[in-house]
Amino acid sequence: MKLVTYEFDGAVGLGAIDPKAGMVxxxxxxxxxxxxxMVGLIRQHTTLNALLxxxxxxxxxxxxxxxxxxxxxxxxxxxxxxxxxxxxxxxAQSGFDATSKRGDNVPDNPIIFTKAPTTxxxxxxxxPCHGALSAQLDYEAELAVIIGEGGSxxxxxxxxxxxxxxxxxxxxxxxDLQLKHRQxxxxxxxxxxxxxGPWIATANEVDAENLSIRCWINGELRQDxxxxxxIFDIPTLIETISAGIRLExxxxxxxxxxxxxxxxxxxxxxxxxxxxxxxxxxxxxxxxNKIA
Length: 292
Prior knowledge:
Elements: E1 2-8, E2 11-18, E3 23-26, H1 38-44, E4 59-60, E5 65-66, E6 77-81, H2 85-94, E7 111-115, E8 120-121, E9 137-138, E10 141-147, E11 163-170, E12 173-174, H3 175-180, E13 194-195, E14 200-202, E15 212-217, E16 220-226, H4 234-242, E17 252-254, E18 276-281, E19 286-290
Parallel strand pairs: 6-17, 8-13
Antiparallel strand pairs: 1-2, 1-5, 1-14, 2-3, 3-4, 6-7, 9-12, 10-11, 10-17, 11-14, 15-16, 15-18, 18-19
């Protein structure tokens, strides 16, 4: 299934989206069983082996507003740095990487950081440029994993059993702040700088180990990668994070970005107000946002 959080007539609900038909079918138990909260649904259905009950009559997409599938994460969003070989190289050569020694371009172990939950914003919403703080805003198209069954010390062999589904994130980054503070949290946690969505595809919907990931800026293709090229694959990431941090239903792991980000160009090509970012990942729809 493809699950969404949406707003219609001033109320928030959960539904199953049919992109081809342009319809959203509300879940019958959205309010009574899940409190219109995607994490509430995930807690009760850590895996979806059967279809949820939906209303037979759907709502046309143009009549609703799609929200981020998980609009209010309960914890920071786990993210992974330098997880594609070509991106690791472009980042090291850009002069913006304050975390590596010369020649140390590819990490030996996953680099895990977090984004604040206040970064999450909906498909179609404007992303603030934070011009008073940053002049070097960058884009990063990423495949994100949604945890279903929680747990600690999850092995790689069992990792996919803990995945509920997948969505798209844009890890918008203030590169100047990332370099200034010599760590990644502040530069990647400005309010409203993590577009997410438009839906969660449940784990049985896509082959997460072979998904094309593309990003256009103002119609120009900048990123064109595939999840099969991850340095550290999804099971490795889940094993690494859960070794000492309990993962909970609804936790988000954004797996890293392919090459082609703004700092990979010479000179760098940073985002400016009015720029339109469009990301497409196989089976996960289109995530489009404008810098304001």
